[in-house]
Amino acid sequence: MKNFLIVVDVQNGFINNETIETYNKISELLDRKIFDKVIVTKYKNIDGSNIEKFMGWSNLKSEDSQRIMPKIYDYSDYIVVKHDYYSAYTNEMVEILKKENNQKLPENVFICGFDTECCVLKSAVDFFENGVRPLVLADYCFSTSGKKLHDAGLLVLTRLIADKNIIRNKIINNKEIEDYIKTL
Fold first, then answer.
1. CA 45, CA 50: separation in Å to the nearest integer?
2. Are 92 and 82 in contact (CB under 8 A)?
3. What is the number of alpha carbons within 13 Å of residue 170 lying toward its C-beta?
4. Dist CA 56 CA 156 (whole Å)
5. Within 10 Å of residue 52's Cβ, how many Cβ atoms?
6. What is the pLDDT of residues 41-96, one digit of tens each?
7. Is a pLDDT exceeding 90 seen at residue 181?
8. What is the pLDDT of residues 93-107, one digit of tens each?
9. Is 142 helix (H, G, I), strand (E, B) or coil?
10. Nearest one of 94, 80, 59 to 9, comparing CA atoms
């Protein structure tokens, strides 16, 4: 069984004083080369998007703000671009996962990145609803709006996907991942 890591929206435009620490943690995690495949999502806001229209949020329109952070980019096997939606669970993502997993969806995917209460949460729920166990790496997620919303996202995820599918400790090696999966 392959271990897939999905890194959600770790982009220049989402890096601030609070998220830089999480970016560094994700970079260290990737340095350990624990996962078989790393799939990175890249959010591109577009003119007239629902986020702009309904929320008044017009960030992440420039190439510089959309740029995937360097270490994340260096380790990515695939980059899935998202336009005007939160979830990493896209047709392209499904095709990649099936291609890399003998033409079927994997049993599990590991998810980390930004924002815990938005894109990470929606991605995890969409994988869950499509029969793939999302394993959210809580220590490798955060919110650009701060700890309060990060914690809120994790709280809601405990209800939506179950607390046992949220890994709350630092991941050191592949054996920890394999041992954790055996307990599910």
1. 9
2. no
3. 9
4. 25
5. 16
6. 999 998 888 888 999 888 888 899 999 999 999 999 999 999 888 999 999 999 99
7. no
8. 999 999 999 999 999
9. strand
10. 80
The one-letter amino acid code at 184 reads L
Which amino acid does the sequence have at 41? Answer: T
What angle separates helix 121-129 from helix 147-157, to the nearest 10 degrees?
10
- Distance, in Å, from the CA atom of 29 to the CA atom of 51, rounded to the nearest integer, reads 31
Residue with tokens 């709350």: 168
> Hey, how many other C-beta atoms are within 10 angstroms of the C-beta on 83?
11
Q: What is the dihedral of CA 139, 156, 91, 32, to 10 degrees?
A: 10
Tell which phi-psi region holds residue 53, choosing left (phi > 0), alpha (psi between -120 and 50) or beta. alpha
Identify the pLDDT of residue 147.
97
CA distance 92 to 134: 17
Rounded Cα gap, residues 90 and 107, in angstroms: 17
Spatial separation of the C-alpha atoms in residues 127 and 121, rounded to whole Å:
10
CA-nearest of 119, 134, 108, 144 to 23 is: 144
Instruction: Please name each of the domains of the chain with its CATH number.
Output: 4-182 (3.40.50.850)
Structure tokens at 65: 């703000």
